[in-house]
């Protein structure tokens, strides 16, 4: 369960982080 939750957290963090970086780059 911890691994699945961790992977889900990383997925959300990555999805949230990428758009922010793209917005700043633009």
What is the first-to-last residue Cα distance?
38 Å
The quaternary organization reads as single chain
Q: How many distinct helices?
A: 1
Which structural class is indicated by helix and strand composition? Answer: mainly alpha
Ranges where pLDDT stays below 50 over 5 or more residues in a row are none
Summarize model confidence as the mean pLDDT: 76
Strand content: under 5%
Q: Element order, helices and strands?
A: H
Rg on CA atoms, Å: 11 Å
Got a strand count?
0
Largest beta-sheet characterization: none
Q: What general outline do the C-alpha atoms trace?
A: rod-shaped
Tell me roughly what share of residues is in helical segments. Answer: over 70%
Write a brief structural summary.
It is built from one helix and no strands. The chain is mainly alpha-helical.
Question: Could you explain how this protein is built, in words?
Answer:
The structure is a single chain. The protein is mainly α. The protein has one helix and no strands.
């Amino acid at each position: 369960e911890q691994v699945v939750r961790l992977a889900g957290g990383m997925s959300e963090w990555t999805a949230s982080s990428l758009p922010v970086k793209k917005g700043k780059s633009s």
